[in-house]
Amino acid sequence: MTLPADHPLLDGRTTHSAVVRAFSADRPDTPPVWFMRQAGRSLPEYRAAREGVGMLESCLLPELASEITLQPVRRHRVDAGIFFSDIVVPLRLAGVDVDIAPGVGPVLGAPVRTAADVDRLAASGPLTAETLAPITRAVGLTVAQLGSTPLLGFAGAPFTLAAYLVEGRPSRDHLAARTLMHADPGAWRALTEWAADLTGSFLRAQVLAGASAVQLFDSWAGSLSRTDYVTHCAPSSARALSHVADLGVKVVHFGTGTEHLLTALRDVGADVVGVDYRTPLDEANRLLGGRTPLQGNIDPALLAAPWPVLEAHVRDVVRRGADAPGHVVNLGHGVPPTTDPDVLTRVVELVHTLGS
Amino acid sequence: MTLPADHPLLDGRTTHSAVVRAFSADRPDTPPVWFMRQAGRSLPEYRAAREGVGMLESCLLPELASEITLQPVRRHRVDAGIFFSDIVVPLRLAGVDVDIAPGVGPVLGAPVRTAADVDRLAASGPLTAETLAPITRAVGLTVAQLGSTPLLGFAGAPFTLAAYLVEGRPSRDHLAARTLMHADPGAWRALTEWAADLTGSFLRAQVLAGASAVQLFDSWAGSLSRTDYVTHCAPSSARALSHVADLGVKVVHFGTGTEHLLTALRDVGADVVGVDYRTPLDEANRLLGGRTPLQGNIDPALLAAPWPVLEAHVRDVVRRGADAPGHVVNLGHGVPPTTDPDVLTRVVELVHTLGS
């Protein structure tokens, strides 16, 4: 390991935390739990903190990003913090003209459609210690507050990043990106390799600054056939993860609608596979050969159902996860903005009463 | 069969057409081909015909709907027409306040969220011969022009219809609909049974007026776990299809992202399963036990790739479909509006040179 000596995994703060243990195929007494997008619009304190501050700006203000990361840990007593950021933050750090339009999502100044566009983009230099400083500082501030609760680093996978770059905005089918990978495989490879190094160094900075594990989000990977994923996307995801391979932190890999890709998501170098709400965890464990810790997969739609319905579902999720080598309870997708935060707190309390 | 004597399946016009044969698990000399959303924005003659006419209005003007249905058959020489309509047309016919907002999709005047909302909705009477008259007339006009080319009837499945009704507009995860099915299963059942009878009678009218087969679109079914689909959606889809069961026409059932649901989509009463671009047809055939004709599944993203790339892909699709009991070539999703129509014509020509 080349982590600094005061890293929480080295000085012992998070080494034996329930999340790190479960990611390491161990079984703590009760299952650990956190929620994707726990730092976000479901919390009134988040909406207050964000008031008047743009999404990308808030990711780049270290005190604010740290405060937002800590809010759900304080409120819900979840077992991990997830670094508050956005998939396109490293693009902004690299100087790409990108913003997050409220109600729309990431919008690029100029979509990347041709080999020449890719060349222009790839001229954006690598992320340096200086450009990464707001990230490093935010992570440092957060870890100092979290104590024995691990912070998880956050980054988007190259395909999802490239899908935004090629489409220029969120899209349903990512048609333009999927066309480019077949129409000009060379340009596609150059684009995704550039994105891999960008997102990989973004992830590495978070780990060096104190994150105890990381999660790679390939939000749109489910739009791909397995062959397209393995041929045109897995190599760049493996490349992104190679940036943290020497650091010895556990890697979670997640995408929605990826039942047909579960083993491929693992085989790019992930230790843990995040499972969306569509695939029962016992089935996911079977598909993965029973040797991979899982994360997931409470259906976010049930957060708005009456408590007895949600409780039965949470118990079922924990039961179905019991045969996997490790299980970190989470949602099967992000927290919907309309979620009652008290329900999330109650889910945490319930999970902490259950045997792992 | 209770079809009228002059129906194209009874008077022999379409009985031995390549599409009807392939749907019946037969192998014509060359594979038949048509394209989902072939009648639509990719065609300049469509854009001209629609100028100044709203989407739902155009579906309810018989001469216009018929002309639009015929356009791609004339231009591309595809082996079937698909009735030009929209999933929400039967809602409009039933008097529900729904419109299609350009660039957005179906928007409801008042979303259906509670049991009381469902009761109010269910008071909308069944579709009558009078309310269905524009559909009957459009189908009749079309079939009179199509000769030996079969017309396929079109309808949305109850879940997808209910997802629009509950959300009030298109959504990514259909959260509100998925919450309702768990939070109030009784209201959900009432809603989907009402939608089943609505869409079933819409489909039946098309068959009686001359459609030689039908396709049920469950566009959003892929957002469901298999258990949720089987428990909360399959019964109403079976009920919808029961409306045409006595007519003896073949039924195709299609949804995107449904690899985990293929057998369930068949088992509601479909003869043919439409496969999206994510699942290779040989794999789909294996999942379906080798006894179900398939439709699909050219990746729409490849329609914009250079011809040699697309040609190799089309040949691969036909090859992978060769082991299924029947195969109708189609896309694995609808024609993107930006598609060059000449490319579609060229795909038809290519498919017609290939052995089935």
Number of helices of chain A: 15
Instruction: Let me know the largest β-sheet of chain A.
Output: 7 strands, parallel
Number of strands of chain A: 9
Secondary-structure element order of chain A, N to C? HHHHEHEEHHEHHHEHEHEHEHEH
Cα separation of the termini of chain A: 29 Å
**Oligomer kind:** homodimer
- What ranges of chain A have pLDDT less than 50 throughout 5 or more consecutive residues? none
Number of domains of chain A: 1
Fraction in beta strands of chain A: 5-15%
Broad CATH class of chain A: Alpha Beta
Greatest contact between two chains: A-B, 32 and 32 residues
CATH topology of chain A: TIM Barrel
Global mean pLDDT of chain A: 96
Pathway (chains A, B): Porphyrin-containing compound metabolism; protoporphyrin-IX biosynthesis; coproporphyrinogen-III from 5-aminolevulinate: step 4/4
EC number (chains A, B): 4.1.1.37
GO molecular function, one term (chains A, B): uroporphyrinogen decarboxylase activity
Keywords (chains A, B): Cytoplasm, Decarboxylase, Lyase, Porphyrin biosynthesis
Give the arrangement of secondary structure elements:
The structure is a homodimer of 356-residue chains.
Chain A lengths: L17 H6 L20 H7 L4 H6 L1 H15 L4 E2 L6 H5 L4 E4 L3 E4 L6 H8 L10 H14 L4 E6 L1 H10 L7 H9 L1 H24 L4 E5 L8 H17 L7 E5 L7 H6 L4 E3 L6 H7 L6 E5 L8 H14 L6 E5 L9 H11 L5
Parallel strand pairs in A: 1-4, 4-5, 5-6, 6-7, 7-8, 8-9
Antiparallel strand pairs in A: 2-3
